[in-house]
Specification:
Number of helices: 6
Structural class: alpha/beta
Strand content: 15-25%
Number of strands: 17
Length: 326
């Protein structure tokens, strides 16, 4: 039986978000590279020990499947750090998770086999793999918060008309709205405090950076969002439950900003290599984003734990600069 998530006695609930760990078979593609998998695992172990989270979230690109000889084994190795720590965990999938021979549906079924994974089977008739919601119980065992996990896909399936990355589909949005309404009815018709996790950022991530005050870095020239805005952000605004969204994908970005009452947050790339606009850089130390919920409050605290053990609470302010028209 899966462990139920619950707020601590002090009313807090702590989540560690690992982004883009991209495990693969060491030295399979370049014998000159360091052992990134083992170093990334050691980093995750240090962060888990320091933060002692109640939940670990792998925010997509858990493996680099097209470079791994055995994607299934690579996935097991990636999440083993959570399993060995006996801490509940869940994963959403990114574009690199399904570039190899193993479909993302199989990857989701694989995570469900793990003892400490709190993910749920996919709802029938909904696009993608890994769409589920888990709830967090309060001190009275009532449902006190919700965590949505949504599959943001990999690449556009209509590349002859629209290229680039995939987008969250309409049936997924309908599924989210239905779940949100169901949880709202349980809680005296008040939206349940919620967070949402997916891999590829929504188009609104560019909007918040370009036109609103943000905190952190966008070393990539833009946020690598889909070309199609399918309306997921609008649905979350309308439902009024999601307080923050958390993504990975762009290794050079770690900022957050608030748009229409929702904090749009990047994680921090966890792997010991990062690329900005396709070029290898070391602009940001690797690490993880940490999120702390407080029972009964519609807010959360968040900070970044870096690979040297330092904690970044106050990220640099970015003033909006507008957007260049190309």
């Amino acid at each position: 039986m899966k462990k139920r998530l619950k707020f601590r006695d002090d009313g807090t609930f702590v989540i560690v978000q690992f982004s883009d760990v991209e495990f693969l078979d060491e030295f399979d593609y370049d014998p000159e590279t360091p052992k990134y998998d083992s170093e990334t695992r050691a980093l995750m172990e240090r962060i888990i020990e320091a933060e002692k989270p109640d939940l670990i979230v792998f925010a997509g690109d858990v493996i680099a499947s097209n470079r791994a000889r055995d994607p299934i084994q690579s996935f097991r190795q990636a999440v083993d750090v959570a399993e060995m720590s006996c801490i509940p965990w869940a994963a959403v999938f990114g574009n690199h998770d399904s570039e190899g021979e193993v479909p993302r549906k199989t990857m989701h079924e694989l995570q469900l086999q793990h003892e400490y994974c709190v993910a749920e089977p996919d709802p029938e008739g909904v696009n993608g793999a890994g769409n589920f919601v888990v709830t967090v119980a309060g001190k009275n065992e009532d449902t006190a918060a919700a965590l949505y996990f949504v599959d943001s896909g990999d690449y556009s399936s209509i590349g002859d008309r629209v290229g680039g990355y995939d987008w969250i589909r309409r049936d997924q949005i309908d599924w989210y709205v239905g779940k949100s309404r169901e949880l709202t009815r349980r809680i005296d018709d008040q939206p349940l405090p919620a967070l949402a996790f997916f891999h590829i950022p929504l188009p609104e991530y560019n909007d918040v950076w370009d036109f609103h005050v943000c905190y952190g870095h966008r070393y990539d020239s833009c946020c690598s969002t889909p070309a199609i805005n399918s309306g997921m952000f609008a649905a979350m605004v309308e439902m009024g439950d999601v307080m923050g969204t958390f993504v990975g994908h762009d290794h050079g970005n770690d900022f957050w900003g608030t748009l229409h009452g929702i904090r749009l947050c990047y994680g921090r790339s966890t792997r010991y290599v990062s690329y900005v606009d396709g070029v290898r850089h070391d602009l940001l130390p690797t690490g993880a984003r940490v999120i702390r919920l407080k029972e009964g409050e519609r807010r959360f605290d968040t900070w970044i734990r870096q690979n040297d053990g330092t904690v970044v609470v106050e990220q640099p302010e970015h003033r909006p600069e507008g957007r260049k028209v190309e």
